[in-house]
Specification:
The protein is mostly helical. Helix content is 51%, strand content 5%. It has three domains: 90 residues, lambda repressor-like DNA-binding domains (434 Repressor (Amino-terminal Domain), Orthogonal Bundle), CATH 1.10.260; 41 residues, no CATH class; 164 residues, no CATH class. The protein has 17 helices and four strands. Strands 1-3-4-2 form a four-stranded mixed sheet, sandwiched between helices.
Length: 383
């Protein structure tokens, strides 16, 4: 290679110096070739240059041959001897190495895999889905196919969309990839279920009786069957870490005759999961979930459909018909038991109702021994 240009350490005009640097950068040649040209113009040998740098001759030889890369320290030393700057020599080296990398088929294949893994993880929490067994692919191609199937999209470049009346701990925040993945699993599970034709009057009647039915905690295991008999698909998908998703109601294929209720089991306690289920049923009965409802994407809109206050009120009326009288102070177990007997509900439902109304501290001893329904939820159709 021969470049007839002034020495880097000489003092040409600013324009000539800039053109000189741009020429070297544009050529994308090994830094060793440029060093060889510079040494030749100065009539310096590698040994002499090594002495100037205060380095072993082998050091210069390895840089010239491309066996060793220039570091920040050595770039500064070369710039002190030859000019113009340490940044220039590092840029020369990086431009060349990056150009070689861009032409390396194996490297580009690896980078393509990195991009695909990143894209898949932006779409869904792959590690979480794998942990729960919702994806099992060993290769990236298999994993990509599974994610497309789960989200029902033709390409991973597509944005999954869901219409749902979602009850979340953070209702004002757009759905996260984790929440969308949870909904996708719920939808896929719902597709496996066969239910009777939808009967909304029967749904309302069942919802009104649920709090009394589950006074026997074991009945919670039968709820999916009971709701299937009135045309509602009820699925349990364990809450994903960080999802803050309690439950959701949506229409399968945007068909108002195919409502789905998904429960995450967050809270585990009978009353908490019951209130979530009643909340979702209230969305159905009130007609909040309709074809073409608000799409759950980051569009600046609220991410539930319908009046949440009215929905919560209806769910509360089903849980504690007629409400409760003002609780005495101090509140004792005997009063809770008496109210539960009067209403025909489990005592923890009364306690939970008071807690939701902020009439009872969340740390009360009255929750001691409260039943969990996690085992019962696991008996619904598996996700």
């Amino acid at each position: 290679m021969s470049i007839a240009v002034p020495l880097l350490s000489s003092k040409p005009s600013n324009r000539t110096k800039e053109e000189h640097m741009e020429k070297y950068l544009a050529d994308q040649v090994p830094v060793g070739e440029i060093l060889a040209e510079e040494l030749e113009q100065r009539d310096w040998s590698q040994t002499e240059f090594a002495e100037i740098l205060g380095r072993p001759t082998q050091f210069v030889s390895e840089i010239m041959s491309g066996k060793k890369e220039i570091t920040r320290e050595s770039a500064a030393q070369i710039a002190a001897a030859l000019g113009p700057s340490a940044e220039f020599w590092l840029n020369i080296q990086n431009q060349y190495l990056l150009s070689r990398q861009a032409q390396d088929t194996k490297t580009q294949s690896q980078l393509s895999n990195v991009r695909l893994r990143a894209q898949l993880n932006q779409l869904a929490p792959i590690a979480v889905l794998r942990k729960y067994g919702y994806v099992t692919g060993n290769s990236l191609d298999e994993l990509e196919d599974e994610i497309r199937e789960l989200f029902e999209i033709e390409s991973i470049d597509d944005e999954p969309v869901f219409a749902a009346a979602a009850r979340r701990s953070n209702p004002d925040v757009p759905l996260t990839p984790t929440q969308k993945a949870w909904l996708a699993v719920a939808r896929r599970t719902a597709r496996t279920l066969t239910v009777a034709p939808l009967d909304m009057e029967a749904v309302a009647a069942l919802a009104e009786s649920l709090a009394r039915r589950v006074r026997d905690v074991s009945v919670f295991a039968d709820l999916a069957t009971l709701l299937a008999e009135v045309g509602v698909r009820l699925v349990y998908v364990e809450a994903f870490p960080g999802s803050k998703m309690n439950g959701a109601t949506f229409l399968l294929d945007d068909d108002e005759a195919q409502p789905v209720i998904a429960i995450s089991g967050r809270g585990k306690r009978l009353d908490k999961v019951l209130f979530t289920l009643l909340h979702e049923l209230a969305h159905l009965v009130r007609g909040d979930v309709r074809p073409g409802g608000i799409i759950l994407i980051d569009d600046g809109e609220a991410h539930t459909m319908g009046d949440e206050n009215a929905t919560n009120q209806l769910a509360g009326d089903w849980a504690i018909p007629g409400g409760l009288p003002a609780p005495p102070r101090p509140l004792r177990q005997s009063w809770v038991s008496a109210q539960a007997d009067r209403l025909g509900v489990h005592e923890i439902v009364v306690v939970g109702f008071l807690q939701h109304r902020r009439q009872l501290d969340w740390r009360t001893q009255l929750v001691k021994g409260a039943p969990s329904v996690t085992d019962q939820l696991s008996r619904w159709a598996p996700a």
